[in-house]
């Protein structure tokens, strides 16, 4: 008895992964954001100057190198992670 139709196995394909996928963004209590490389296991960069209070939330933009953060200082900041500056 057959187990059903046989499927062809595909070869593994190379996938281009966005560089941001290996970066973890962590907001701090003093208003800075730390960017850690999950591949290297080390601090990649530190974003300062956008907030003066605790970071509540960070979110990556899905289409570019921007990161958004909001803080208890009641501001939303758009960061350019290439330059580590506020946009």
UniProtKB/TrEMBL annotation:
Residue stretches of each WD repeat:
48-87
UniProt GO BP: maturation of SSU-rRNA from tricistronic rRNA transcript (SSU-rRNA, 5.8S rRNA, LSU-rRNA)
Q: Which GO terms describe its cellular component?
A: nucleolus
Q: Which Pfam families match?
A: WD40
Keyword set for this entry? Nucleus, WD repeat
Per the record's keyword annotation, is Nucleus included, yes or no? yes
What is the protein's major site of localization?
Answer: nucleus
Protein's cellular compartments: Nucleus
Name of the protein this chain belongs to = Uncharacterized protein
Gene source species = Bambusicola thoracicus (Chinese bamboo-partridge)
